[in-house]
Amino acid sequence: MAASYWKNVLRMISSSSSFRKCAVAGLTCGGYLYSKYKLDDDNWKAPQLLTFVHANSSTVHNLSLLQDNEKKMQSAVGARGRRFVDFATVVVNNELYMTPKDFLESVIQERPKPRFGHQQLSIEQALELVAQTPPRADNSLDFFRNLNSSGLISYTEYLFLLCVITKPKAGFEIAFKMFDTDENQIVDKDEFLVLGEIFEKRTAGGDGKNNEAATAANNKVKTEKEATVPTTLNVHFFGEDGTQVFNYADFFKFMDNLQSEILEMEFLVYSQGMNFISEEDFARVLLRFTDSKDTEESIVRLRNKMSVVSKGISYPEFRNFFQFINNLEDFAIALRLYTLSGRAIGKSDFKRAVKVSTGQDLSDNVVSTIFLIFDADGDEKLSHVEFLGVMKDRVQRGFRTTKKQKGWDAFTRCIVHQMKTSANE
Fold it and tell me: pTM, whole model, 2 decimals?
C-alpha cells in the first residue's frame, strides 16, 4: 500500500516545478517525523523512509537541472525559441515537438494553456501520429485545424511556418526558388531540409555574447536532417517514404491556405460565430503584438469618436487589410513619396496608396477606423511613422527586435505618456 501511494505522489510532483519544490520540503519533513516518532505503516521503518527521501531528493534535483538546461536553451535561441518551448507539448527521443494545435495556439494566443509536463511518445507512437497526415492534394483552409493534435512540428519547421504567415504573396515565388537549389522547378526532401541548416545558423547568430549557449541550444534543437522522427510537414510534402516532390503550385497553395487559416481563426476569436466584428475588436487585433504604450488610449479615442451604431467589419474586409500589411514595404515606399512632396496623408490618399502598392481594395469603414486609431490630433491626417511601426510589429507578431530607449529619451517618453494619461482621466 505504501509503495503504491508514494509512486502516485512521485508521478504528481514530477509534473511541475512548484510541486517539485514542495515535494522536497514535504518528503524531508516526513522523513524527520518517521525517524523521530518511529511511525510504522505496513512494515515501513524510519531508516527505509529516510533512504527513500534521499533517493527522491536526487530525482528532484536532476529534474531541476533539466529545467535549468531548458532555461539556458530558451535564452540562447531568443524569443521564437522561448515561445516554441512554452507551447510545445510533445517529447520524442528527448526532443520537443509541437502538434498542429500547439502551433495554432502559439500564433493566436498570448500565453499557453496551463499543463502538467509533456506528452512522452516513443518512435513507434510518433510514426503512428504522423501517418494521419493527408497528402498534398488534400491541403485545405482547415489543414492544421483538422489535424488538431495528430501531428508533429519540429523547431526548424516552426520557424519556417512563422515566415510563411508573414510573407506577401509576391514573395512566395522567391521563397520557392530559395528551396529549389538545382533550379529544376521542383523541391525534393533534401532541398527542403536545407532550411534546418539555415535556421540553425540564424538561431546561433546575434551579438556573439551567447555563442556557447547558442551552440548548446542548437545541439538540443536538432535540424530535420539529423532527426530520426518524421514530421507532419515532411510527410505532407514528400509522402511517408520521402520520395515525392512538390512544385510551385503546391507550395503556393500551402502558404496561401495557411495564411488564410490563421486569419480566419483570429477573426472567429472575436466574432463568436457572427459575420462581423466590431471596430474596437478590429483595433485590438491590430494592436495586440505592439509595444505601444498608447494602445488603450487609441482604443478609448476610437470608442469615443465612433458613431452610436457600429457598422462592423466583415471577414473579407478583415482579410484584405491583413493581406495588405504583409506587403508593407511596397506601401512604405508610396508613403515616402507623399512625405517627400510635403503632402499630409488623408483617407483618399491612403486608400489609393494601398491600391497602387499592394493591389488591395480597403473598405471606407476600415480606412476610417485606421485613421481614428492613428490620428492622435484629430486633423484627419495619418500619423504614418507610428502606423508603419505598429504594422511592422503586427506582421512580425511581436518578434520584431527594436532598440530599447534608454536615458533621457526613455525619460521624456515616459513623462509625455504620463501627461497624456493624466489628461484623459
Answer: 0.70
Q: CB under 8 Å, gap of 24 or more: what pairs does 359-362 form?
A: 360/320, 360/321, 360/323, 360/324, 360/327, 361/320, 362/317, 362/320, 362/321, 362/324
- Closest C-alpha among 238, 266, 269 to residue 251: 238
CA distances for 294 relative to 301, 419, 423, angstroms? 10, 12, 13
Give the number of other Cβ atoms within 10 Å of residue 318's Cβ: 23
pLDDT tens digits, the chain, 425 residues: what are they?
545 544 554 454 444 444 444 444 444 444 444 444 444 444 444 444 333 333 344 334 434 434 554 554 555 467 888 899 999 999 998 899 999 999 999 998 888 888 888 999 999 999 999 999 999 999 999 999 999 999 999 998 998 998 888 888 778 888 888 888 888 999 999 888 876 666 556 555 544 444 444 444 444 444 444 446 889 999 999 999 999 999 999 999 999 999 999 999 999 999 988 999 999 999 988 887 765 566 777 888 888 887 666 789 999 999 999 888 888 888 888 777 777 766 778 888 889 888 888 888 899 999 999 888 887 777 777 766 767 777 777 776 655 544 444 444 544 455 454 445 444 44
HEC sequence for 253-277: HHHHHHHHHHHHHHHHHHHCCCCEE
* Contacts of residue 316, Cβ cutoff 8 Å, sequence gap at least 6: none
For residues 161, 221, 138 and 162, what is the CA-based torsion angle, rounded to 10 degrees? -10
Four-CA torsion 206, 212, 216, 218, nearest 10 degrees: 30
Grid cell in block for residue 366: 476600415
Q: Residues 367, 404: contact at Cβ < 8 Å?
A: no
First and final C-alpha spacing in the chain = 64
What is the Cα–Cα distance from 202 to 48, expressed in whole angstroms? 52
Cell numbers 501517418 correspond to 131
* 90-92 and 119-121 strand pairing: parallel
**Residue 153 β-bridge partners:** 98
- Closest to 126 in 3D by CA, of 91, 86, 87: 91
Contact criterion met (CB below 8 Å) for 177 and 240:
no
Question: What is the distance between the alpha carbons of residues 273 and 265, in angstroms, rounded to a whole number?
Answer: 11
